[in-house]
Write a structure and sequence with these properties.
Strand content: 15-25%
Radius of gyration: 19 Å
Distance between the termini: 30 Å
Helix content: 40-55%
Shape: globular
Number of strands: 8
Order of helices and strands: HHHHEHEHEEHEHHEHHHEE
Structural class: alpha/beta
Largest sheet: 8 strands, mixed
């Protein structure tokens, strides 16, 4: 375990606790911000003809519900996540929207899936947090039918995603306890290196692996920016420890740093990501 990297138990506790609650509190903003990726995954399901879909790291469930709506009564979509508070919202939304999606609170690395039970495995920003990605993708392959598809979205490098690192750069003079982002460690940019991702999937038994760089325009209301930057990411986890005066000063600094992304009443950014696709072998391995 690298210094500064949460252990698997610590990381799971984050998603069951502060990080999970932060996503719940900002759910509507995040769903709007990442809606283009939800649409992309629904289209991937449509194009593949898949009827049994697993959504890995489903969070509050928007992608799971969107795919379940597309599949209707002729298919099923199952969401998987470790976060208790996020899954509670996902289940509430499924009931409120009358969508027949199912959710499992479990770790993709260790969950005992029924073998060959999904013909497409998808994820929107969920797979970068695996502690042991080879183990996780091996387990997911075993849950997949022969010739099943894999379609995941993951962030490229922090350098290609300046919006995602602006807060910690601006906060560095004020905060000394921002957790460092370490290359290859579980976290937002763990899959930045395409060669590493290729190796992980090969070692996990997936075939026909492709990584395609995609640059996706994303937006959110400017009025939501302060809440976004003070609740999410490395800065969001430590800013709550400041007293009210120091926190207000830091928020002003953060909002000024984000000004290049603000256009009138809208925040605009380009999300630099990988579209990762692969196929399960046609014979059992």
């Amino acid at each position: 375990m690298t210094a500064g990297t949460p252990s698997p138990l610590e990381q799971e506790a984050l998603w069951k606790g502060p990080a999970g609650h932060a996503w719940v509190d900002t759910r509507e903003v995040l769903e709007q911000l990442f809606k283009p990726f939800e649409d992309l995954l629904v289209e991937a399901v449509r194009a593949s003809g898949a009827r049994r879909v697993l959504d890995v790291g489903c969070g509050t469930g928007s992608t799971t519900l969107a795919v379940a709506r597309h599949l209707g009564s002729t298919g099923q979509c199952v969401g998987l996540d470790v976060s208790t508070p996020m899954l509670a919202v996902a289940r509430e939304q499924a009931e409120a929207q009358h969508v027949a999606a199912r959710f499992i609170e479990a770790n993709a690395e260790t969950h005992a899936f029924e073998p060959a039970s999904f013909d497409l495995v998808m994820s929107r920003f969920g797979v970068m947090f695996f502690d042991d990605p080879v183990r996780a993708f091996t387990n997911l392959r075993r849950a997949a039918t022969r010739d099943a598809r894999l379609c995941c979205i993951a962030w490229r490098s922090p350098e290609e995603n300046p919006f995602m690192t602006t807060a910690e750069k601006a906060a560095t003079p004020f905060l000394t306890n921002i957790p460092p982002r370490l290359p290859d460690a579980p976290g937002q940019f763990a899959f930045a290196d395409p060669n590493r991702v290729q190796r992980i999937l090969e070692q996990s038994g997936w075939t026909d692996i492709t990584l395609r760089a995609i640059d996706v325009p994303c937006t959110m209301p400017a009025r939501s920016l302060a809440r976004y930057v003070t609740r999410l990411g490395p800065v969001g986890r430590v800013i709550q420890e400041l007293d009210e005066q120091a926190r207000a000063k830091l928020v002003d600094t953060l909002l000024a740093a984000f000004s290049p992304f603000v256009h009138g009443d809208e925040v605009r950014l380009t999300a630099a990501c990988w579209r990762i696709e692969a196929r399960a072998p046609t014979v059992a391995t």
